[in-house]
């Protein structure tokens, strides 16, 4: 189709190709090549409901998309629930780690903290971020624990998954594999994630100093599959995959590094210095960072996702500064380089039994779980179902230095930070590709 003979100066000098925006045009329209259907019928029960490991095996057959874990806390009696509580997103708190292996690929791990952080940071909007956390398990106190069963829905963050239709990757083509996909979820003992108020008389054990003795009412994996309507469309039936390979771009998250720090009584304005190590070979796109108070994860009252974003951050590699965020400016920088400010809405569990009163866990004080993204690669989001390569930074000597200070208050509140032991969580994000050939696949970084 020929363009109009009369062109403006802008049409002549601007870069780009001519696209017809008046009539339907192949340049502005796309269509699916192969007809498919989608289902969520593949379900597998957990082998262990009191903790430990359960393995999901997916036979090599169809396209594999998202995987969701559904868990249920049983209905408790008043005597059992007395003085107990569970934090918002308790399903993620239950998960110690997840391992994944695609066919004959290498096996990798992520922690429960990373699962949630990966899910909320990739959510398409702020409402979705809050909903992902809330769907991971509502915050519960003694009253709501008696109105069970209470469910948690945990989306598993794996290299091929994205928790939204925006930018969703094509399904993982397990039809190119001859070995099964294996996902292992390791749970903490179920009772270890409960908050216990002072003076609790729960018959589940905490009044004697022992952890709560409890098992899940149920737990299962559920897999979303994409199937060809005509199996003759499968790549292995059209192409000799013994001599060819399929490149499947992914974003790979390495198992987190945890670095202990100490925070003095507020206001602690001292500069903390940490060394980030453990980088694998490959291109680092960015570093995800958040800080937790140790007592929030292991104390009597648990707020495991009360994440704190550091301030006055300086990240250097080989003497060159790559990220400098003075004061709390990282929030704005992460917003303008992404879509959203780095935070998800949460609530805080409080022990109203402290000081000798009756044992009661209350759900109060809306708060914000915050993190910071420290970029190496250029920021750009094509918002497409197929990936766009943006280069990262190879960390050849494996050492990055970071200095920062801690904020005065917990995010979203006016409550000063407690003094004590804290942990910095560091999660490295890499460019990666899964190469499928000869019935197996492996990572290329």
Brief sketch in words of this structure:
With 445 residues, this protein is mostly beta strands. The chain has helices spanning 9-13, 78-81, 90-94, 112-121, 126-135, 142-145, 235-238, 294-298, 330-336; strands at 36-45, 52-58, 63-73, 84-85, 95-102, 108-111, 150-155, 172-173, 181-187, 195-196, 218-228, 246-253, 257-263, 272-276, 283-293, 311-317, 320-325, 343-351, 361-370, 372-375, 393-394, 400-405, 420-437, 440-444. The strands form six sheets. Strands 12, 13, 15, 20, 21, 23 and 24 form a seven-stranded antiparallel β-sheet that branches. Strands 1, 3, 7, 8 and 11 form a five-stranded antiparallel β-sheet that branches.
Number of helices: 9
Number of strands: 24
Distance between the termini: 43 Å
Structural class of the helices, strands and pairings?
mainly beta
For the sheet with most strands, the description reads: 7 strands, antiparallel
Tell me the Rg in angstroms: 24 Å
Can you describe what's shown?
Strands 12, 13, 15, 20, 21, 23 and 24 form a seven-stranded antiparallel sheet that branches. Strands 1, 3, 7, 8 and 11 form a five-stranded antiparallel sheet that branches. The protein is globular. With 445 residues, it is mainly beta. The mean pLDDT is 91. The two termini are 43 Å apart. A hairpin with a 2-residue loop joins strand 16 (311-317) and strand 17 (320-325). The chain is built from nine helices and 24 strands. 38% of the residues are buried. It has one domain.
Blueprint of the fold:
Elements: H1 9-13, E1 36-45, E2 52-58, E3 63-73, H2 78-81, E4 84-85, H3 90-94, E5 95-102, E6 108-111, H4 112-121, H5 126-135, H6 142-145, E7 150-155, E8 172-173, E9 181-187, E10 195-196, E11 218-228, H7 235-238, E12 246-253, E13 257-263, E14 272-276, E15 283-293, H8 294-298, E16 311-317, E17 320-325, H9 330-336, E18 343-351, E19 361-370, E20 372-375, E21 393-394, E22 400-405, E23 420-437, E24 440-444
Antiparallel strand pairs: 1-11, 2-9, 3-7, 3-8, 3-11, 4-10, 5-6, 5-9, 12-23, 13-23, 14-22, 15-20, 15-21, 15-23, 16-17, 16-22, 18-19, 23-24
Helix pairs in contact: 4-5
